[in-house]
Write a structure and sequence with these properties.
With 236 residues, the chain is mainly alpha-helical. Helix content is 67%, strand content 0%. Helix 1 (7-31) crosses helix 2, helix 3 packs parallel to helix 11 and helix 9 (180-192) packs antiparallel against helix 11. The two termini are 16 Å apart.
């Protein structure tokens, strides 16, 4: 079995998926706010969560598979070799992200929250992100900052200065330019919470849709490693 993604397909996917979903949710938010509220519902509002929370998990899965496949199959070809650890860190981070969003399967298989979690979890769920900001808001803020800097600001800087990359190892730890659409839309959504428009602020500025577009960016980031494999022979 050889898992491959062509550069042409990935380029179309990377630019179209974020825009299609973003425009769909913008249209829904203004045409049917009640429906958008259902889409953005959390799992403590609706058992199993709304559409967006479940879509976040679904979108992360192919990225996790692709990233793990790249690590297991081609890690020894990544130069410098320490960059393979960066890839593995993001595979594990996305696995944690998806697992926490699904409460590790609790809302799908409907098991009772173990006593250990019920004592420390403020929403009585089988997850860690509702136990401390160190398992949720703080790492998420770092990821959001990383997406903005490496996914949007850095590509613009390199383009304006007519540079391809800062150093060889940057190619393996930074997102490729194809992800600029996902980073740009994520930034728009992140800024939505500061806009004085109730529809935008409360629906498009919700934490659930923000997490969805974080998931889109991270999944595309992991998928991009398989695209890079086809372009080089001595790296992943």
């Amino acid at each position: 079995m050889n898992l491959k993604i062509t550069p042409q397909f990935f380029n179309i996917l990377a630019h179209s998926l974020p825009w299609v979903l973003f425009l769909f949710f913008v249209f829904t938010a203004y045409s049917d706010p009640a429906l958008m509220s259902l889409y953005t519902a959390k799992d403590d509002d609706i058992p199993g969560g709304g559409l967006i929370e479940n879509l976040t998990v679904i979108i992360l899965i192919p990225g996790i598979i692709a990233g793990l496949w790249a690590f297991l199959s081609y890690r020894n070809n990544m130069l410098p070799h320490w960059t393979k650890n960066w890839l593995l860190i993001w595979v594990l981070a996305c696995t944690y992200f998806a697992g926490e969003e699904a409460s590790w399967g609790q809302w799908y298989f409907e098991w009772e929250t173990p006593e250990l979690f019920s004592e420390i979890n403020d929403q009585n769920e089988t997850n860690l992100h509702n136990t401390s900001t160190w398992f949720d808001q703080k790492p998420r803020s770092l990821v959001e900052l990383w997406i903005f800097i490496t996914g949007l600001a850095l590509p613009i800087y390199l383009k304006l200065n007519n540079k391809h990359q800062l150093a060889d190892w940057h190619y393996w730890i930074n997102p490729i330019p194809n992800l600029i659409s996902a980073a740009f839309i994520f930034t728009l959504i992140r800024l939505a919470s500061f806009i004085d428009d109730q529809t935008i602020k409360h629906l498009l500025g919700s934490s659930e849709i923000r997490e969805l577009f974080i998931a889109i960016f991270l999944s595309l980031f992991l998928l991009s490693y398989l695209v890079r494999l086809r372009k080089t022979k001595n790296r992943i």
